[in-house]
Specification:
The complex is a heterodimer of chains A (305) and B (425). Chain A has 305 residues and is mainly α. Chain A is built from 14 helices and 2 strands; from the N terminus they run ααββαααααααααααα. In chain A, strands 1-2 form a two-stranded antiparallel ribbon. In chain A, a hairpin with a 4-residue loop joins β1 (46-48) and β2. Chain A is globular. The N and C termini of chain A lie close together (12 Å). Chain B has helices at residues 102-112, 124-132, 148-153, 233-243, 254-271, 279-285, 295-300, 340-350, 353-363, 374-379, 394-399, 408-423; strands spanning 90-96, 115-121, 140-141, 157-158, 187-200, 227-229, 274-275, 290-294, 314-317, 326-334. Chain B has 12 helices and 10 strands. In chain B, strands 1, 2, 3, 4, 5, 6, 7, 8, 9 and 10 form a 10-stranded mixed β-sheet that branches. The two termini of chain B are 22 Å apart. In chain B, β1, α1 (102-112) and β2 (115-121) form a beta-alpha-beta unit. In chain B, α4 crosses α5 and α4 packs across α12 (408-423). Chain B is globular, with a radius of gyration of 21 Å. Chain B has a domain at 195-324 and 405-423: 3-Layer(aba) Sandwich (D-Maltodextrin-Binding Protein, domain 2), CATH 3.40.190.10. Chain B has 425 residues and is α/β, with parallel strands linked by helices. Residues 10-56 of chain B have low confidence and may be disordered. The chains are: A mainly alpha (305), B alpha/beta (425). The interface between A and B is large, with 39 and 42 residues.
Amino acid sequence: MAVTMRRRQRAPGRTFWAILAVPAVVWLAVFFVVPFYTVLAISGGYLNPFLQEPVAVWNPLQWSAANLDSLMRDITGAGAFIGPIVARTLVYVVAASVLSLLIGYPAAYFVARFAGRRKGLFLLLLIAPFWISYMMRMLAWIDLLQTGGYINRLLSLVGISPVNWLGGESVTVILGLAYGYIPYLILVLYAGLDRIDPRLIEAGRDLGLGRVRTFLRVTLPLSRQPILTGMLITVLPMLGDYFTNQMLSGTASTSMLGNVIDGQLETPGLQGQGAVLSMMMLTVLLVPMLYYVIATNRSSREAVS
Amino acid sequence: MRHPREGWSPEGSRQPGLSRRGFLRQGAAAGLLAGGIGTLLEACSSPSAGGPSSSGSAIPLARPNHPVTWPLYADNKPIKSGLQPEKNATLQIYNWVAYLNQQCVKDFEKKYNCKVQVTTFNTMSEAMSKLRTEQVKFDVFIPTIDVLGTLIESRILRPLNHSYIPNIHQAWPDFTNPFYDQKWQYTVPYTIYTTGIAWRKDYVHENPYTMANPWAMPWQAKYKGKVAILDDYRESISLGLMKDGIFNLNTTDPAQITQSQKALQDLSQLVNVHIDNNDYSNVPSGQIWIHHAWSGDMAAAPAYMPKGVSPDVIGYWFPPDGKGPVGNDTMAVLAGGENPVLAHLFLDYMLDLPNALTNISYNGYMQPLTAITPQRLVKEGLLIPSLISTAVLPSYFRRGVMELELPPAADALWQQAWLSVSKGI
């Protein structure tokens, strides 16, 4: 009932709202739909053998499975090498996400609940990493971690022999991923945690729950949605990341799916397969996205009722 | 294969996909070779005129023992002799990133009272697609050898009028009749380079000059984590081939390509090999001790030494007999340009010794002029004596092996092998 009424009220202004939506629709069409369709057209296209360049086929009826076939050979065929990389990518991303959450949640919780008058300052500090380009932050890590770098010098002070952090260590890549994406997570978590009505927490305490149980029974369930959003926002780019890995490792032993796609796109003749692999990843990633949309809808419906 | 300038960046640090100097993706930059093992022809070469040809096209693949004389077309004639340079002109140069000393540009502007506009590209394929659109009016271009056929057949390059380029006589004689452009109808030489092994003398106690097989130097478990190979499918697969004594770096034999892939995968297992093109900064910083490297990069490496470390600790090995990978770039005039006379004069200008030296002082890569000897480079302070091995000698181009354009099917094998090595396992 309430829904229909609201809809009716909005009706007179429909044109107005439609006009307001135009820039966003144009933006999406130009910068999302067109590139997306181009990738599809390249996936279904063929190779110009003379120029070793992919040729996009725009008519879906004429798409060929040639690129898909060659990619499947890399995945399942005799010379398959992508399988272990998929596993490694998942391990890295899960490890980095859990680490980010373990670090990010308390930080966001602190700012949202206990920062008091200094909340503005802390928010500023949380946003500060965005002022520096991702590449610069990774370059800074290289300085910190290299053989004669600060971390190793610090370690040697405590009597630990230098670690070759940049020599293809999984740990370095996972730490780099966590470091790179954690600001997004904290901001999202903060926005969600800040909205939790403190009275609910107080009520929990008043009803005799201890600190830990208040957190577990009240705060944590209420922060389920922000955690989900935050994880989605960090996990998706981490899955496609090739950059962190290339900067902090540069060896085949740590390569992730993003690196494979990067390699395919840089290799003449393999761009088509890279396009297929990108589409495959996208299809797989749609699952958590859809789940997120459904979960958000459900929770907002719960909030309304 | 990439190019030494692909994705160049000034930071001197590792960057994603943008390594400072890679090689052109599609094919090799090549040089002169008048004999030697590298001249073996592919088994699958077709019998078309002028040498082996890419399947699906009539454009011949230039090889040292199959030199190519490119056709001259009636609709693409050289400019007439004796013309005056264009007035109030802006010469448009289309070049790799950071591959030309700005000082040379300024001096040229002053000398010929014109403006020069340098536009840069990061990969040869990027440049090729831009040139094919014919929307751009560039005058001078720096093509690699493997794309010459395409450029000439498409009438993108203008044939040269030699009367404007007297300084060609300063170049090594071999370059006045190169196999990739007989009678230098379309190109003059630009830079030259070798691929070898760089090592830190203070950490690595083997000396490649006394080793039985220096190409195998990276395969040493005790240097785990301290070994790197170039991020370049032609260079690295070639390293795998040479390690096993195969010096046909344009092989189309799947067994040999697989053998190299295996060798490199072993290397990956053995030392967790690093894959990057930052030889010029990673060796000075001590991050890497044994680096498969380009000569020009290592000539520039002393500038990246940390404070207090002598640049003498860096060594560069290239086979003293010259039997290793060599290559060169060219300069050409574009047919679509509006200032062909100035373009010719610019080619001539860069072949003049003082200007070439100014240019080398900036970009590290040598130019093949007779007067530029290793001793001269040292004397001019452009090279430190301990890295004199990075200098390229004319004999290298006679004995060396070149990574040249491959037939597409073989090229795909090379790329697939490299993808498995660099991203797989």
